[in-house]
Specification:
single chain; alpha+beta; Ribosomal Protein S8, Chain: A, domain 1; 3 helices; 4 strands; globular
Amino acid sequence: MAKLKLDLHDIYNRGQEIERELERIMRDAVEKKIELIEIIPGKGSGQLKKHVLRFLNQKHIRGMYHRIEKDDKNFGRLFVHLRHKSGQ
């Protein structure tokens, strides 16, 4: 299964850049029909992970995926399972 990976460690303190990167990777996954995105906000205080989850919960983004999986072995990692409509 093909997947994309986004590591947010380098831009953890730049809110607008984080949003741009999340938008970019979601668009890339949809365009390339990638089924899984691995997002690494890191462990830290958990604020970046909350930021990512708020982003993913926006109505226009929620329609792109069917499930978010929080890694039970690594608190600092999320998996976004995308939905692709047949015929696209």
